[in-house]
Every structure is written in structure tokens, then in C-alpha cells.
């Protein structure tokens, strides 16, 4: 089973487990005579919070909805709170899919949308249910107030449990998709904003206890929530600035050699087109583009005498040049923003038959996503001039790709590259990438 299928199966199981629990305990929704006004106010506050997320990346959003969700867990019986939180999370994804459909006039991939709705709604439901169960076991709720330090400890433990359950389930889904260790993803996920998220749970607790006296507090809490939102925004902008700086550094590597000027940008464009032809999801396409933009950044540590040599390299010089994927890996490793693309950068010169570098990994054992950049990189190298040779024609480059399919490159990736990057369509990837960037 492919990593994508494993991840999809896991997400469906999470969604079905949540739905089964909901169905088995539907009677719990009427427990304690639900306060319609309170549920309505919490729902309004939750929708407002979810409608203004910060997009850290195409598959990672940050919002202040956690404060509203935790307030709901403290104010409502656990079955009601879990249903409200899960329902709001699922509704937000449905609204986002509808908005995208209206904006693009394209039919969304209903299967992918359905899986995402099931998983995100399910993991939110289960996280809220776990926190509610802990609060119910400790006999703590906002309506009863805090009897002492022990009750405060239970509230803190419920917040930690809710946050960790959410992160663990998301990390497992990503780990199954990317073949990475879930613990690494757990610590990487939302690492840029852990202080802000802790403050959101504090804000949610304060809001819940205040709401017992003034029911409109969840809506009025928008002011302190905005301050946390602003702090989150600054962290996200700092992250984006760091990524832009790294990409500019990679561009400077290309500028060192007039023959490779804009090489990384072209490889990113080709990679985008090939990935879409292969049917990879939007998140994978973004990861590939990001990796392509910085795939040669390790060359910044290669001496000019080798990098700019106007002739073929000697064996010793080539061994030095072949260290650049590892050097790039080392340069990017300290930056959590690039954690997901490290393996793509490291493996962009590995071959399908295992005769590549730096590790001689058999390419066919790599995930498909890791076999795209090698084709795009080679394609641009062949069709660009070098000091010691002229650029090959597009037809010649295609023939070389065909000859190397099954030995140097993945045959499926080669077929996709030839199909989408035909001579008469060579400008199409540029148009597609520009359209995607402006969307």
C-alpha cells in the first residue's frame, strides 16, 4: 500500500471512529438541558475564529479557534462540546471547499474533500471528547467554578490533553504520508507558535469562567484573541521572511555561474508541472516546489574553482561537487520550515538504479515525490548551455530521458515530464505556475 493510501485509510478510520462514538452517545446531546443561547454564541465565536486563519503553508493553518473550542469543553457537557467542536471544524472545511469552487469554477475532488472533512472533524471531536472526559472525571466545569489548586490542575491537564491529542493525530497522518517518524512531526508541528497556542488555551479558560456571568463574553473575547492573532501573524511573517531569505541565497548560487542563472526557478516550474501531471496533491506539489527552489543551495559551499570551471571536472573535483546535496541538507536542517523538504534536497541526484549520489540509494525505493526533482533538474541541465558544451535541443533532451527511463530516472516521472513539457507546450508550465502563485 502506498504512503498516500495508508494516510487516507488512517484519516478515514479516525473520522469513522468519531462518527461511531457520536452515534452511540447521541442521547448525551440532550443531557443537562442544552442552553441554546450558549451553544449559539460559542458556535458564532467559533465560526468567526475559523474564518480568519493564518496560512503558514498550503497544508498548515493557524487560528484562534482553539480558545473557543476549549471554552466550549469547559462550559458544555462533554458530548455536547465534542459535537460542537467537531461540527464546527467539519463545517469550516466544507465552507472553504465551497468558496474555492465558486472562486475557481472547478469541481473540487470530492473524495479528497470528504476524507479531509471526516478526519479534521473527527480529530477535533475526539480531542474535545478526551479533554471533556478528563474534566468530567475531575468534577470540574466552568459552571461549578474552581474549588482550589487541584481543580486548576485538572483544567491545565485537560488543555494539554486536548492540544496533544490534536497534534498526535495530525502528526500520524503526516507521518504515514511522508514516511517520516511521527515523533519528529509531533515536535515540528506548530513549533513556530507554541507560546501563542498556550496563551489561547488560557484565554479559552478565562473566557469560559467569565461566560457563566456574562453569556456574550465569547464574542467580546475577540479583542484579546486579536492580540494573540497578531502575535501569531508576526511569527508566521518571520517564518516566511526566513524562507524568502533562503530562496534568495539559493538564487545567488545560480547567479555565480551565468550558465545556471535562474536554474532553480526553472526546475521549480518544471517540477510543478510534472507533479500535477502525476496527480500529486496540492500539499505535495508545494513541498516539491519549495525543495526545487533550494535544491542546489549546498553549492554555495563549493569553491569557485570547481563550480565555475570552464571545462569538465576531474574525478577529484567531481567528488567535491557531489557533496552539494549533503551540504544543502546541512544548511537547511536548522530551519524547521524546511524540515519536510530535507530528504528531497538530499536525494535530488539519486538514481533509479542506485548509482547516484550522495548515498547511492536505489531510487525506485524512494517515494514518488522524491523522484520528480531529479527529472526536472536533469531536463533543465540538458537544455541549458554550459561553458564546455552547447544546450541540447528539446527533442534531444526528450530522447535522453526516454533512454534513461528505468535506469537513471523513474519511468512514470519521465512519461509525465515528456507529456507535459513537450516543445509546443514548454511555456505552459510557466503559465500554470504563475496562475498557482496568484491563486
Structural class: mainly alpha
Unreliable runs: 55-59, 424-439
Measured as a percent range, the helix fraction is 55-70%
Number of strands: 2
Give the overall form: elongated
Compute the separation of the termini in Å.
33 Å
The helix tally amounts to 20
Produce the secondary structure layout.
Layout: H1 3-24, H2 36-50, E1 54-57, E2 60-62, H3 65-75, H4 78-104, H5 110-138, H6 149-178, H7 182-188, H8 194-211, H9 217-220, H10 222-256, H11 263-277, H12 282-294, H13 304-307, H14 315-321, H15 324-332, H16 342-346, H17 373-382, H18 394-404, H19 411-420, H20 428-438
Antiparallel strand pairs: 1-2
Helix pairs in contact: 1-5, 1-6, 2-3, 2-4, 3-4, 3-5, 3-8, 4-5, 5-6, 6-7, 8-10, 11-12, 11-17, 11-19, 11-20, 18-19
What does this entry look like structurally?
This protein has a two-stranded antiparallel sheet with strand order 1-2. It starts with a helix and ends with a helix. It is built from 20 helices and two strands. It has two domains: 237 residues, no CATH class; 182 residues, Hypothetical protein af1432 (Orthogonal Bundle). It is mostly helical. Helices cover 67% and strands 2% of the residues. Helix 2 packs antiparallel against helix 3 and helix 3 runs antiparallel to helix 4. A hairpin with a 2-residue loop joins strand 1 and strand 2.
Describe what is shown at a glance.
The protein is mainly α and 439 residues long.
Tags for this entry?
439 residues, mainly alpha, Hypothetical protein af1432, two-stranded antiparallel sheet, 20 helices, elongated
Amino acid at each position: 500500500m502506498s504512503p498516500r493510501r495508508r494516510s487516507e485509510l488512517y484519516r478515514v478510520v479516525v473520522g469513522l471512529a468519531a462518527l461511531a462514538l457520536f452515534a452511540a452517545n447521541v442521547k448525551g446531546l440532550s443531557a443537562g438541558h442544552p442552553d441554546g443561547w450558549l451553544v449559539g454564541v460559542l458556535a458564532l465565536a467559533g465560526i468567526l475564529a475559523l474564518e480568519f486563519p493564518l496560512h503558514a503553508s498550503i497544508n498548515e493553518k493557524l487560528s484562534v479557534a482553539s480558545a473557543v473550542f476549549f471554552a466550549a469543553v469547559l462550559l458544555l457537557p462533554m458530548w455536547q462540546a465534542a459535537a460542537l467542536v467537531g461540527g464546527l471544524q467539519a463545517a469550516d472545511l466544507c465552507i472553504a471547499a465551497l468558496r474555492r469552487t465558486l472562486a475557481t469554477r472547478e469541481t473540487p475532488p470530492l473524495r479528497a474533500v470528504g476524507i479531509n472533512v471526516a478526519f479534521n472533524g473527527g480529530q477535533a471531536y475526539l480531542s474535545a471528547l478526551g479533554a471533556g472526559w478528563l474534566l468530567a472525571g475531575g468534577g470540574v466545569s466552568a459552571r461549578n467554578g474552581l474549588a482550589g489548586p487541584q481543580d486548576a490542575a485538572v483544567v491545565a491537564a485537560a488543555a494539554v490533553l486536548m492540544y496533544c491529542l490534536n497534534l498526535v493525530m495530525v502528526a500520524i497522518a503526516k507521518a504515514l504520508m511522508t514516511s517520516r517518524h511521527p515523533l519528529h512531526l509531533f515536535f515540528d508541528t506548530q513549533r513556530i507558535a507554541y507560546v501563542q497556542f498556550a496563551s489561547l488555551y488560557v484565554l479559552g479558560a478565562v473566557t469560559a469562567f467569565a461566560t457563566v456571568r456574562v453569556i456574550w463574553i465569547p464574542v467580546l473575547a475577540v479583542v484579546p484573541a486579536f492580540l494573540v492573532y497578531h502575535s501569531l501573524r508576526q511569527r508566521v511573517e518571520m517564518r516566511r521572511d526566513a524562507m524568502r531569505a533562503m530562496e534568495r541565497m539559493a538564487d545567488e548560487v545560480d547567479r555565480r555561474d551565468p550558465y545556471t542563472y535562474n536554474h532553480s526557478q526553472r526546475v521549480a516550474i518544471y517540477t510543478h508541472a510534472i507533479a500535477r501531471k502525476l496527480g500529486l496533491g496540492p500539499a505535495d506539489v508545494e513541498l516539491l516546489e519549495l525543495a526545487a527552489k533550494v535544491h542546489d543551495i549546498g553549492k554555495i559551499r563549493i569553491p569557485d574553482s570547481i563550480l565555475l570551471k570552464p571545462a569538465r571536472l576531474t574525478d577529484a573535483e567531481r567528488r567535491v561537487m557531489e557533496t552539494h546535496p549533503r551540504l544543502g541538507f546541512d544548511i537547511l536542517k536548522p530551519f524547521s520550515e524546511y524540515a519536510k523538504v530535507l530528504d528531497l534536497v538530499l536525494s535530488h541526484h539519486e538514481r533509479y538504479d542506485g548509482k547516484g549520489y550522495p548515498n547511492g540509494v536505489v531510487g525506485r525505493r524512494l517515494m514518488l515525490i522524491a523522484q520528480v526533482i531529479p527529472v526536472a533538474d536533469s531536463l533543465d541541465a540538458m537544455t541549458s548551455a554550459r561553458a564546455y558544451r552547447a544546450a541540447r535541443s528539446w527533442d534531444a533532451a526528450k530522447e535522453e530521458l526516454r533512454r534513461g527511463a528505468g535506469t537513471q530516472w523513474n519511468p512514470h516521472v519521465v512519461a509525465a515530464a515528456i507529456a507535459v513539457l513537450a516543445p509546443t507546450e514548454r511555456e505552459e508550465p510557466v503559465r500554470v505556475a504563475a496562475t498557482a502563485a496568484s491563486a
